[in-house]
Structure formats: structure tokens, C-alpha cells
Write a structure and sequence with these properties.
Number of helices: 14
Number of domains: 5
Distance between the termini: 60 Å
Strand order of the largest sheet: 11-10-16-7-8-15-12-13
Shape: elongated
Number of strands: 32
Largest sheet: 8 strands, antiparallel
Helix content: 25-40%
Structural class: alpha+beta
CATH topology of the largest domain: Rossmann fold
Length: 596
């Protein structure tokens, strides 16, 4: 049985055709009737369908007959976006091979290279596949040359397909069986299985998607999670199917299946953990386990402050299906009560906010995203700061460390100058520059703080949309960083604080107050908007008061009558300025994203 199993993943850059190819393979294996086939069958969320992106890795077990012999194909469709690269690495660790899809019109992209390196790390058999050969602008031979040059992958044996029309897909499946090796493993050893995905089902509770390396998992077996050291009973076992999962009594060595444990949350089922037999555990866990770490943080607040508890409930429910979200309550003088929420990256943040608004009917304000900083205090204590307002007093800070990423950028050579200028402005350090035909592969080390704002938008606009970008977090490095505070009518607005490099503080402060001047509506009194650095005001703009002509009723007569009315108005405005409150509009909290 084991020699007739093939476990493989599909990896590619966004929009190169992973989900469409998965649909064609399902169709070719006749797992679903043609009348029931829909586009992006394995993408189950509305957002995935609408945006045409895969957010969650999905698996399916397919039966396929070749030369009279029946084979089991376990297909894993992985996300293409950088935010979900940990999920990609766990999915690839569960496979023996990977289909590397390259778009015949766009060629190799940044995410293609990143995913290939993860596949190399897991010693996978890689199959280069050129997709979209039905398009008039397709140039598969150039793309294969580019792949060999950029990645160093031998493309002598390759497949040319059109996932849209189905051309070449049957040959590809036959080649998968020939080229990708069968899973190795010992049936007689203690149970050893890798959890590479988990989600919550309303009827069955928390589910774990596992790949069994040794032994078997059986119904009613007591199993133990090695890293979390929790023990649970297996209530049911299923094989993943595109329409309806199939029940089974056991999942054997080399197979992929769903384990039903009847738990009420997915917190016990951590992606990357090793599952083993509770009575006879395996001596070694599967390497590479690390809990999902949020790297981008933002405050999420309900527009209607009375709906704080509804937001808490919505986040709890969303966490059942996405254990990588972290959140804790926080309050802001400007926005009321909300949650400091941690995300894997910018796309993840966008998707979570959209799901909260759509699935739970909430109106939300998200503050500008920030990253985690490591602060070394003068007394030797290390702190991790997710919110600029948590930064200790400057006199207590010895050093502030910021996270750096390794950015991989592929850009047509005509836009190279624009991109290098942008990267230099963002404090990037060049480590590599290679020419691949008419494109340039750049590698830069860059502070993460510089890319969470508007970097991707600027990269796309300076290259007319042709550049592709991928990043990987590397380490923390010391930086000359300061907290920039914003005061509106002499009151500090905590939700508008940002951490900036000292060299950019003055320019950022000036831009920020200028932007806020346009957004804060006029009051009956003058409103001062100030940017302050360590208690010292570095920039100021004033929102002029709305004027009222109090002397309109005076016609003729002595000037002292007019003067008396004007002095009365002046005194009223002075008093109002001392006690008046200014409501900061929602747009102001996102103004920080628009700073150049």
C-alpha cells in the first residue's frame, strides 16, 4: 500500500495557477462529478474566492489508476503569500515532492524563489511545471531558462500545461507517480505524525490534519502532543475529500488524514507539533516545530464603543479557525476600549479585519500597524514592546532593537534605479544583485518597520506593477529609534504615537502634523497640533477657528462698542480653548500610513 501513495504540494507565486491546477487534478481523478466542479474548489472562504488567493492550506485525497494499478494521491494546495510561509513550510515537510508552477507569461517571481528554498530545505523532489501555455504571450522555453538561471533547478524534464483548459494535466499526473518517491516509514514503530493544519468544525470540534510518518493512528487510541504535552482520545478519523470527508478506522504510515479529538478550541492542536501514542511514545519528535509568531501589531477598536464585548466574542470565534491571531484588551483615550491584535503580516491583518467586519457585522477602526521592538533597559532587563505607548521613559532605555528582514525583489532592469532609491530611503542594506535575462534579482536587509507601512504599494507604483517582493524575518538589530508623540489641543493622542529613526523624526513629525491639519475639522477655537520627540515639540500646525462676525449688528456708533464685543468673543474663545475637547476623526489614525 505504502509504495502506491504519493504525497505532493503545489507551490508557486500568487496568481500563477495553483488552485486552478488543483481543480483540474481533482477533475482528472474523477473525485467530483463534472457538474459539481467549481472554480477554486479547495479555497473554501468567500475572501479566497473573491480575491483569487489561497489563505489556508487545503488537502485532498484522490484515487488514480495508471497502467491498471490504483494509486493514492494526497494533494496539498499551499498559500502563495509571504505572510503564510510557516504554513507552507509545514505543508512541504508533509510531502515527498512538490510541483513548482511558473507562469509562462510572467516567469520566476520572488515568492517562487522563496518557496523553492523551503522545498530544498525539506529535501523534496521538485517538478518544474510551466502553466498558462494557452495564452498568446506565453514563452515557456524562456521561462525554463530563467528558472535554471535564477534557482539552479535542472529543467531538462519539465511539463507544459494549461490549468485553465486542462492541456497536459493527465501527463503531469502520470509523471508525478513516476518521479515523486513513495513515502518512507516503519509501520511497526510507535506512532509519529506531524500536524500541519488545524481548524474548527461546528459539529466535530477542533480537527487536526496530520501526515503519519511511522506507525498508525487508530480510532479510540490515546494520543499525546509532544510539544504541548497534552493527551487526548481519538474520536474519529477521516480522509480529506473535496466535497465530503470519508470516514476510516485508521490512518497508516505515509498517509494523510484528519483526526477528530472533540476539543472546543484549536489551541491544543498547534501546527508543527508531533502527535504520538500516549502509552508507547516515539523517542524523537519531527524537527522544525515553532509556534506561529505574530510580527505585525495593530489596535482594533469598535466604532460603536458599546460593541466591545461583541468584538471580543468575534475574535474568540475567529481564533478557533486561525490560531496564529493573538489579542489582548487595551484602552485608548481617543478610541475607547479595543484589542491589541497580532498578525503574521499585512495581508493577514487585512484579511482578519475584513472577516471580522463581514462575518460578525462589526464596524471597526484599525490603528496604523507596528512591529515588535526589543528594548534593553539600563538595569539590564529586556522588554518586548508591541505598542509605541508601552515604550519606557527614555532615561531608562539603554538600546532599542528592531526586527530586520531579508527582502528578495525581482524587478525589470528598466526600473532598477527607482527600486534602489526606494530601498535606500527605507534604510535597506544591499547583499546581492544578479541579472536574470532582462530582470534583476535584488536581496536587501531592511528594517521591518519600513515595510509594514506602504512599502509594497510604493514598490508596485515605481515599477508599474512589475516588481515582485518576498521577505523573511532574520534578526533584531540595534537602531537609533525614538517615540514620536502627537498632541492635539495639548493632549497626547496615544493611538497616534509611532516609533521612528532619529534621522527621520523631524521630517516625519512635520509631515504628520501637516496631514492631521487637513483631517481635523475646524472648531470654535484654535486647535494646535504638535509633534513631540522626548517631550520636545519638533513641529506644529494650527487649525484656525471658525469665525463668527459678532460686530455684524453694530451699525455706526463709537468704535468702543465693537471693541467690547470683540474682547468678549476673545475671552470666550480663550475659555473654550482651555476646556474644549477635540474629536479626532477615524481617517487621522490611518494618516500615518500615507507619510512619504
Amino acid at each position: 500500500m505504502q509504495k502506491h501513495i504519493r504525497n505532493f504540494s503545489i507551490i508557486a507565486h500568487i496568481d500563477h495557477g495553483k488552485s486552478t491546477l488543483a481543480d483540474r487534478i481533482i477533475q482528472q481523478c474523477k473525485a467530483v462529478d463534472d457538474r459539481l466542479i467549481t472554480a477554486q474548489m479547495m479555497d473554501t472562504m468567500d475572501i479566497e474566492q473573491e480575491r483569487g488567493i489561497t489563505i489556508k492550506a487545503q488537502s485532498v485525497r484522490l484515487n488514480y489508476t495508471k497502467d491498471g494499478q490504483e494509486y493514492v494521491l494526497n494533494l496539498i494546495d499551499t498559500p502563495g503569500h509571504v505572510d503564510f510561509s510557516y504554513e507552507v513550510s509545514r505543508s512541504l515537510a508533509s510531502s515527498e515532492g512538490a510541483i513548482l508552477i511558473i507562469d509562462s507569461t510572467q516567469g520566476v517571481q520572488a515568492q517562487t524563489i522563496a518557496n523553492v528554498y523551503i522545498a530544498f530545505d525539506n529535501d523534496l523532489t521538485l517538478m518544474p511545471v510551466v502553466n498558462k501555455i494557452d495564452l498568446p504571450s506565453a514563452d515557456p522555453m524562456r521561462v525554463l531558462e530563467e528558472t535554471e538561471e535564477a534557482i539552479g533547478l535542472d529543467c531538462t524534464h519539465h511539463n507544459l500545461i494549461s490549468a485553465k483548459t486542462g492541456e497536459g494535466v493527465k501527463q503531469l499526473i502520470d509523471d508525478i507517480i513516476e518521479i515523486i518517491p513513495a513515502p518512507q516509514g516503519d509501520t511497526d514503530k510507535p506512532t509519529k505524525a506531524l500536524i500541519y493544519d488545524s481548524w474548527f468544525d461546528n459539529y466535530l470540534g477542533a480537527l487536526a490534519l496530520v501526515r503519519v510518518y511511522d506507525g498508525t493512528i487508530q480510532k479510540n487510541q490515546s494520543i499525546k502532543m509532544i510539544n504541548t504535552e497534552e493527551t487526548h482520545k481519538v474520536l474519529d478519523l477521516l480522509y480529506p475529500h473535496p466535497l465530503k470527508n470519508i470516514k476510516t478506522q485508521q490512518i497508516q504510515t505515509g498517509e494523510i488524514g484528519i483526526v477528530v479529538l472533540g476539543l472546543k478550541t484549536t489551541q491544543s492542536i498547534v501546527v508543527g507539533d508531533t502527535m504520538t501514542d500516549a502509552k508507547n511514545p516515539t523517542s524523537e519528535s519531527i524537527s522544525g516545530f515553532e509556534p506561529a509568531k505574530p510580527f505585525v501589531f495593530a489596535g482594533i477598536y469598535p466604532v460603536d464603543t458599546d460593541r466591545f464585548e461583541e468584538l471580543r466574542e468575534a475574535l474568540n470565534k475567529l481564533q478557533l479557525n486561525d490560531s496564529s491571531i493573538s489579542f489582548e484588551p487595551e484602552s485608548s483615550t481617543a478610541l475607547g476600549s479595543g484589542f491589541r491584535t497580532g498578525f503574521l503580516g499585512m495581508l493577514h491583518m487585512e484579511v482578519v479585519k475584513e472577516r471580522l467586519e463581514r462575518e460578525f457585522d462589526l464596524d471597526l477602526i484599525a490603528t496604523a500597524p507596528t512591529v515588535v521592538y526589543k528594548v534593553l533597559q539600563t538595569d539590564g532587563v529586556e522588554l518586548y514592546v508591541e505598542n509605541p505607548s508601552q515604550l519606557p521613559n527614555p532615561s531608562k532605555i539603554d538600546k532599542i532593537y528592531e526586527p530586520y528582514v531579508k527582502a528578495t525583489i525581482l524587478v525589470p532592469d528598466e526600473f532598477l534605479g527607482n527600486v534602489i532609491k526606494l530601498l535606500n530611503d527605507k534604510r535597506g542594506i544591499q547583499t546581492k544583485m544578479d541579472y536574470i535575462n532582462s530582470r534583476v534579482l535584488l536581496e536587501y536587509e531592511i528594517p521591518m518597520n519600513e515595510i509594514v507601512m506602504d512599502f509594497y504599494d510604493k514598490l508596485k507604483s515605481t515599477t508599474k506593477g512589475y516588481a515582485s517582493f518576498d521577505y523573511d524575518i532574520i534578526d533584531f538589530r540595534p537602531g537609533d529609534l525614538k517615540r514620536l508623540d502627537v498632541l492635539v489641543a495639548k493632549e497626547s493622542v496615544d493611538a497616534l504615537s509611532i516609533i521612528v529613526p532619529q534621522s527621520k523624526a523631524l521630517a516625519r513629525g512635520r509631515q504628520f502634523v501637516k496631514k492631521l491639519k487637513e483631517l481635523i475639522p475646524k472648531q470654535l477655537f484654535e486647535v494646535a497640533i504638535q509633534a513631540s520627540l522626548g517631550g520636545e515639540v519638533i513641529a506644529r500646525e494650527t487649525v484656525k477657528s471658525t469665525g463668527k462676525n459678532v460686530t455684524a449688528k453694530c451699525y455706526g456708533g463709537d468704535i468702543s462698542r465693537k471693541r467690547k464685543l470683540l474682547d468678549k468673543q476673545k475671552a470666550g474663545k480663550k475659555r473654550m480653548k482651555a476646556i474644549g475637547k477635540v474629536n479626532v476623526p477615524q481617517e487621522a489614525f490611518m494618516a500615518v500610513l500615507k507619510l512619504d
